[in-house]
Amino acid sequence: MIHITEAQSGAAISHELAFKAVRSALIAATSSEAATFPVVHGTASDPQNKFTVKSAADGSLTGLKVGSYFPTNDAAGLPRHNSIILLFDQAKGRIGAIVEGGKLNAYRTAAADAVATDALARADAQVLGLFGTGHQAAYEAQAIARIRPLTKIMVVGRNADRTRAFVSQLRRKGLPAEVSQAETACRAADIIATATTATKPLFQADWVRPGTHISSMGSDAIGKQELPPELFAESRLFCDLPEQSARIGEFQHADSETPLTAIGAVLTDPAKGRQTSEETTIFDSSGIALQDLYIAEAIIAAAAS
C-alpha cells in the first residue's frame, strides 16, 4: 500500500499541478463512466466540529475523501481544515493508497475556481473582489492571479483587524490587495470569488456589473449561502456537478427549473460557456470527489518521479 504523508503531499503540490489534475477531474465528471455518490455529513463529539465523506469512481479510479472542519483547533494553533484521501485497489477492493491532504485540499479547491474562472471570465478581467479572509481565501487569490493579470484584489471581510492582516499577507506574496467594502468591491470587480461559511447573501444583486464572473466556493452543505438568488435569473449558471450543486451547493437556492451546466462540458466545448462580454456567469463549487482522486493520483506520480 502507498502512503503519502502530509509533509510529502505538501512538498509536492503546486498551483500548476492542482490546476491540471482538477481540470481533468471536472472533464471526467461529465463522462458516462463517472459516478459521484451522495455526500455524507457528520459531526464529532463536539457538534461544532464537522466532517464530510465524498466518494466517486470512474473508469480508472475509485475512492473517497474524508474532510474535517474543526474550529476548536483555533485554541491549539492548528488549522481548522484537514483531509485524507483513500484510493482503492481496483482488483482487490483493499485500500491501495492513502494520501494525507490538508494542504492539498486547499490547492484543490482553489484550482476548481481557477479552472472555471479561466473558462468563463472575460479575457480582459483584471480586478478581483474577494469575500473571505480565512485560510482558503488566500489560496483562491493566488490561483486566480495565475490565470488573469490582476491589477487589484479588493478584499471584503467581517472583522476589520483580520481583514487588514489578510491584505498584508497577500501583499507579502506580491499580490495587489487592498481592504474594501462589499458594494465598492462588487461595482469595481471583473471577477468575484466568495470563500466563506456564510448562510446568507454577502452582497446585493444590483451591485454586480454586467460581464462579471462569480465563483461561489463556500457553499457545500444544506443551509449555506453566499450569493443573492435574484442574481441567478439574469446570469448563466455553471457548477462542478449539477445534481450535487442543486442539493447542497449554492444552487440549492435557485429555482429547480433553472438550467445548470457542468463546467466539464464547457472545458470540452468552449461554445457552451460565456457567449458575450456583457453576460454574467456564476460557477458553484460544491466540491466533488473526483477532484480529490485525480489530485491524489497526481501527487503519487510526483512522489514517484
UniProtKB/TrEMBL annotation:
UniProt protein name: Ornithine cyclodeaminase family protein
Top-rank taxon, per record: Bacteria
GO cellular component: cytoplasm
Signal peptide residues on this chain, from the entry's feature table: none
UniProt cross-references to InterPro entries, sorted A to Z: NAD(P)-bd_dom_sf, ODC_Mu_crystall, ODC_N
Native organism: Parasedimentitalea marina
Gene3D superfamilies linked: NAD(P)-binding Rossmann-like Domain, ornithine cyclodeaminase, domain 1
